Amino acid sequence: MRLALVSLTSLALAACGQNAGNNATVANAANSAAPAPAANAAAPVANNGTAAEPVSRRETVTGTFTGWEMGDYLWAHIQVPGRETISAQPGPTPIDLFLDANRGREVTVEVSTVTANIPENGGATEIQRITAARNAAGTAEAWYQGLSAADRTAAQHRFEQGALSGR
Length: 167
Prior knowledge:
Layout: H1 2-12, H2 24-32, E1 44-45, E2 53-70, E3 74-79, E4 86-90, H3 95-101, E5 106-118, E6 123-135, E7 138-139, H4 140-145, H5 149-162
Parallel strand pairs: 4-6
Antiparallel strand pairs: 1-2, 2-3, 2-5, 3-4, 5-6, 6-7
Helix pairs in contact: 3-5
């Protein structure tokens, strides 16, 4: 279990993704339309300091972050009106901490479908990964930058005590 938490923490701290724009109209349109292929479908996403992961699709959706599911990996659940709940691995800090701080609230996330190496599933597996997040107040990065050192520590502690402990 401790190894899984260490691996999960490493995954959560991995560098990947890019900022999503701040256009609610586009985000809401994305919720009602089928996901479009990424403009550059071969564009890689770096994960956990390993080789880049091929991206087959990207979409921006707005929904309610409802919480976490912990198995071999941590999965964020975003309830999107008019479609099935999205279950995706969170990108690096501060995305994970931002989502945790916004449980039960509306967020807009960029979800990339990537081919990741998941040894527990036999290797190369297509998964969804949240590569950017924001709410009406701003991006995950801006939120995190606005926190004091003590608030960052507290956010990390809440995340570890909640999401990483299975609560």
